[in-house]
Design a protein that fits this description.
The complex is a heterodimer of chains A (about 200) and B (about 190).
Chain A lengths: L11 H12 L5 H13 L1 H18 L8 H8 L1 H14 L8 H19 L1 H9 L13 H25 L5 H18 L9
Helix pairs in contact in A: 1-3, 2-3, 6-8, 6-9, 8-9
Chain B lengths: L11 H27 L2 H17 L9 H20 L23 H19 L3 H12 L4 H8 L3 H22 L1 H4 L1
Helix pairs in contact in B: 1-2, 1-3, 2-3, 3-6, 4-7, 5-7
Classes of the chains: A mainly alpha (about 200), B mainly alpha (about 190).
């Protein structure tokens, strides 16, 4: 015969556990009979059990809230939204990567074109048979020199832009050494000075 | 055996059917869990939607025989994250608080119903003052009616731990409520 041990007043854990087992109907039969007997004689225990049962019943009777219709529609639409997002993602254009050699080639071509433009006068002089002859400073007017300078600056700007778009390293340094300085030297040799020199 | 079994089908159609059936079967329970955990319907809606988005994203890897514990686990993690991120505090009970509202058809008369409802509202508040794990286990066991092994599967905890936390949670609930109803039960 199971007998409930006499416990001190502070043994609430032990009672709590028995109360829960009793409510869950998991107390062994022998122990349950003793527990019921104890309840009949112990009003405090009876109250504790009644309260625990009330809490347990209130929890068990909790109504399951239903999903609001708007939320149901949102959830139902998840697969379609995901499919639409996948389609959209596949449509996004990816940036085109220009190979390095292509960029270099574009830069070299730009410099070559610039060189040909600047060599326009020597070619003409060669054609006229005047290359190497002494240049008479008075053969060019100030207006012609200014026009040539303006044309040179435009050409330089074009080369610079082409270089920047091509992403090459042939920019200021190459242009300055290969184009600007020779032009200035040529101009100074015939007695004119560019704005940079001034 | 049809080729389009739910478990192993590679095409999207059977997975879509499985998703739809899971959604119909568990959406209210997931939403209910979130409402009871957070005590806030708007946040619970966000969590529920997030849970089913994750279910769709993981449709090919989720074990379809274990979808219930998977859903409750994801819902619980989402609730805990949201709770911690926003540092939600238990608020005063409002009319919108349905976490412990019982069906009126089973309830007592109007006067008693009012007392009962107030008691249930206090119960909801006390529930949300429990630590995360205790609260999860109490909700899953007492409200959602899961078996012990299902709770173990959901929370990936051993049976002994689940029982200990359930015991602590129940005891904490009773103590908090007995403080409120001290005069009645003292």
């Amino acid at each position: 015969m199971y007998t409930m041990p006499s416990l001190p007043d502070n043994s609430t854990d032990w009672f709590d556990e028995r109360i829960e087992l009793y409510i869950d109907a998991e107390l062994p039969e022998e122990e349950r009979l003793v527990f019921v007997e104890r309840m009949q004689s112990d009003s405090r225990l009876r109250q504790e059990v009644a309260f625990a049962e009330q809490v347990s019943l209130a929890l068990a009777a909790t109504r399951q809230p239903e999903c609001p219709p708007m939320l149901v529609r949102r959830i139902e639409g998840i697969p379609n939204l995901a499919a639409a997002a996948d389609r959209e993602r596949s449509r996004v254009l990816r940036p085109v990567r220009v190979p390095r050699f292509m960029r270099t080639a574009v830069g070299i071509a730009a410099v070559a074109i610039m060189g040909l433009v600047l060599l326009r006068v020597p070619f003409a002089e060669l054609y006229n048979g005047s290359l190497g002859s002494e240049v008479d400073p008075g053969a060019y007017s100030q207006a012609e020199v200014d026009a040539a300078l303006l044309e040179t600056k435009l050409a330089l700007a074009l080369v610079g832009d082409a270089s920047r778009y091509a992403g090459t390293t042939v920019r200021d340094k190459v242009i300055r050494h290969s184009v600007v300085r020779p032009v200035n030297r040529g101009l100074s040799s015939v007695g004119y000075s560019s704005e940079e020199d001034q | 055996m049809p080729e389009t079994t739910l478990g192993s089908a590679k095409t999207n159609t059977p997975l879509r059917e499985w998703f739809d059936s899971s959604m119909r079967l568990y959406r209210d329970r997931v939403f209910g869990f979130a409402v009871q955990f957070l005590g806030n319907r708007a946040d619970a809606e966000d969590v529920t939607q997030d849970v089913f988005i994750r279910l769709w994203k993981n449709r090919e890897v989720v074990d379809q025989s274990l979808v219930q514990p998977w859903l409750f686990r994801v819902a619980r993690n989402a609730c805990v994250d949201l709770y911690r991120r926003r540092r939600l505090q238990p608020t005063a009970v409002s009319e919108e608080d349905v976490s412990v509202a019982t069906a009126a058809s089973d309830g007592p008369g109007p006067d008693e119903w009012t007392d009962q409802r107030i008691f249930e509202q206090h119960l909801g508040l006390a529930l949300r003052q429990l630590p995360d794990l205790q609260r999860s286990i109490v909700i899953l066991r007492e409200i959602q009616g899961l078996k012990y092994d299902e709770i173990c599967e959901t929370l990936e905890l051993p049976m002994s731990t689940v029982k200990v936390y359930l015991h602590r949670g129940r005891r904490a609930l009773r103590r908090q409520l007995s403080d409120v109803y001290h005069a009645e039960f003292a």
